[in-house]
Amino acid sequence: MNTALKPIDEFRDNINRMGDQFLAALPKHVDVEKFKRTIVTAVSLTPALLEADRRSLLASAMKAASDGLLPDGREAALVPFKGQVQYLPMVGGLLKRMRQSGDVRSITCEVIYENDRFERWIDEHGEHIRHEPNYRDADRGPMMAAYACVYTNDGGVYVEVMPKAEIEKARAVSKTKDREDGPWRNWEAAMWRKTVRRKVAKTAPVATDVLE
């Protein structure tokens, strides 16, 4: 009788043995059992993760724990790349961290499509933007730009807008830019938002690691 564990069962045992490490790393509001279940589910849905270097997989899981984000594809993702696993915070998770930082009142971060209406202007009251997404048409057209607006609790407003050409420059230096199962192929809009968030992080008075 073959009693060898299946790879996913062996991985589940590894995650359970790391329970105390996750508990120490996780913020108090994140349940460690839920976190462990989310990791196992993520690996079950993406078998390539089990084929990657196990140390990089567990290290990525610890990074997610340190950030207090669930690797569920909404808050964060575990992405296989050239035999390694990379930890990728997603839009929902980054916004969650920013709100928990205590510095940020709110943030808007969106992609501008060709058929949307977008305006940006500066007057004596500061910088302003107006974005009207075109939800009337089934096709909003290709992505043209992305922007991020950070509103801090002390009344500050920080705005960055990046046109497509500028975002493509950032993509060109990414290690995952051409990978079929990489984030630029599978979550392109999310990567546009992440890129403009990184730019606004250079001016907004909040912790850079929260914005990135």
Characteristic terms for this protein:
single chain; 212 residues; alpha+beta; 3-stranded antiparallel β-sheet; two-stranded antiparallel ribbon; 10 helices
Description:
It is a single chain. By secondary structure, the protein is an alpha+beta fold. The protein is 42% helix and 25% strand. The protein has helices at 7-17, 19-25, 32-45, 48-51, 54-67, 91-100, 164-172, 183-186, 188-200, 208-211, and strands at residues 76-81, 84-89, 104-113, 117-123, 126-132, 143-152, 157-163. The strands form three sheets. Strands 3-6-7 form a three-stranded antiparallel β-sheet. It has a two-stranded antiparallel ribbon with strand order 1-2. A hairpin with a 2-residue loop joins strand 1 and strand 2. Helix 1 packs antiparallel against helix 3 and helix 2 packs parallel to helix 5. It is globular and about 65 Å long. The termini are far apart.
The total of beta strands comes to 7
Cα radius of gyration in angstroms: 19 Å
Instruction: Report the principal-axis shape.
Output: globular
* Percent of residues in helices: 40-55%
Major beta sheet summary: 3 strands, antiparallel
H-E string? HHHHHEEHEEEEEHHHH
Counting copies of identical and different chains, the oligomeric state is single chain
Helical segment count: 10
**Which segments are poorly predicted (pLDDT under 50) over 5 or more consecutive residues?**
none
Major sheet: order of its strands?
3-6-7
**Strand content range:** 25-35%
Instruction: Give the N-to-C terminal Cα separation.
Output: 50 Å
Mean pLDDT: 86
> How would you classify the helix and strand content by structural class?
alpha+beta
